[in-house]
Backbone:
């Protein structure tokens, strides 16, 4: 069974922190594009909703996935990782058969 991506509470909390720090309420866009060292790469950025986007919302914070990217992100988990090596939004994608070391490029 295919499901839309799931966003963790930690990712929503980080979006709330960004909104508070910047004074702007913008959504997190998670997209898949061709490129990268493994064939596809994630494009993760703050953006505004567009027509056709899947909007995942919690407590006023939004994560957006466009129609083209949605099949690549079925059943994925969008999380926020804050480790010694750095802090970033990460994607745990069960559709990816392999990925590069940086975690932003993958193949299916």
Residues:
């Amino acid at each position: 069974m295919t499901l839309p991506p799931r966003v963790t509470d930690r990712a929503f909390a980080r979006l709330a922190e960004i909104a508070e720090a910047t004074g702007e309420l913008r959504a997190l866009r998670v997209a898949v594009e061709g490129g990268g060292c493994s064939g596809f790469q994630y494009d993760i950025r703050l953006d505004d909703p567009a027509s056709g986007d899947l909007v995942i919302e919690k407590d006023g914070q939004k994560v957006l996935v466009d129609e083209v990217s949605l099949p690549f992100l079925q059943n994925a988990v969008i999380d926020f990782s804050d480790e010694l090596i750095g802090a970033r939004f990460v994607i745990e994608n069960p559709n990816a058969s392999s990925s590069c070391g940086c975690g932003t490029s993958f193949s299916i």
